[in-house]
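Incident log, structure service

09:12 report received: a user says their structure output differs between two submissions of the same chain.
09:20 pulled the input from the user's history:
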Amino acid sequence: MRGIGSISPGWGVTAVRIAMGLILFIAGYGKVSAGVAGVTEAFTGMGVPLPGVTAPFVMVLELVGGALLLVGLAGRWVGLLFAIQFAYITFLLKLPADGWGAARLDVMLLAGAILMVLAGSGRASLDAVWLERERGPAGGRRAL
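09:34 re-ran on a clean worker, output below:
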């Protein structure tokens, strides 16, 4: 019988990726439903720079990036974009203005985004399927 220590950490990464994907996709859907004008107004009130540019970018990033995380495609690149977004939100917006209580979820999403950058999408992902196919049956990279 195999112990819990024999389970690949990639499965834990998968759980974090799927949770992040759900949270961000739903947040993006909510922003898209509110419309660019509403999100721009909200960003203006929060002090986000260039809210007319930032709002549509964040709307698309959260909706499309959340969907990409759900299926595990381009996890490192999407993670990098979310790491930048949540580093800004956490350290320049929420912590100074509202303190720790308002920034808790953002800190967790930042940590998850950093995990995606460092570890990739995890086991149950399109990235993993693609990389396994690219490496071939022997585990080494195939020649192109």
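09:41 both user submissions now match this output. Likely a transient worker issue. Closing.
09:42 reviewer note: The chain has one domain: 11-135. DSSP finds six helices and no strands in the chain.
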